[in-house]
Amino acid sequence: MMTGFRLNLSPLKEPLGFVKLVEWLTAIFAFGSCGGYSGKNIVSLFCDDGRDETLDANFHYPFRLSQVPLIEGNATVCNRSVPTTYMVGDAASSAEFFVGIAVVCFLYSMVALLVYLGYMHVYKDSDFGPIFDFVITAVLVFLWLVCSSAWAKGLQNVKDATDTGGIGATLALCQGSNITCEVTEFASMRTLNISVVFGFLNMFVWAGNAWFVYKETRWHSQKLSSQLAPGRQQVPAPI
Fold it and tell me: Where does the chain cross the membrane (predicted)?
C-alpha cells in the first residue's frame, strides 16, 4: 500500500471535500465573531440636583462581567460616595466553550482537508479512516448543538446584565432614591448575534457532512450489499 502524499484536488469537487471546506470557513466565522468582541455601554445618571453624570460599562470576551468594575475606588457620584462596584454576571464558560469547539472544528477540518487532498488513497484503502472520520463528525454535530445553545443563553445573560434593568439593579444608588439610571448608548452586539447564527449553521453543515462521511464507511457498503442481495436471482441454465 502506497502511503506517500499525492496531491489531488478532485475531492473538492465532491460533497465530501467541498462540505469540509465550508466547515473550515464557517468555523472561522464562528470563533472570529465571538472571540474578538469588545463593547461599551454608556450609562447616564440623572441626579436629584439636576446634574447628569455618565458611567462607562465596558465588557469584552470572555464576558466575566463580575470582574469588570463599573465604578472603581470610592468615587463620588451624584454627591454620594459609592464604593467599587462590579457588574453582575459571568458568561465565560459558555463563551469559551463555544470558541473552543469552533477552534477544534477549524483544526480538524484543516487536517481532514489535508488527508482528502493528499492521502485519499490511504483514506479509502482502510476501514479506520472513514469510521474515525464519521465518529468524530457525529460527536462534533452534538457538541455544536450544545455549545451553540449554551452560548445563545449566555449572550442573553450578557444583554440582560448590560441593559438599563441590569445596571440599575447593580448600582445601589439607583435603587430607592431620586436618581435615575439609564443606558443611553448601547454597544452593537451584531457580531455576537452572528456568532450564534454561525454556531447553529455549523451544526447543520456538520450534520449534512456526516451523511457523506458515512457513505465512505464499510457500514454503508455492507448495508447496500445486503439490500441488493435479495434482488439477485440465479438464472436457470438453458435446457
Answer: 97-119, 131-152, 194-214
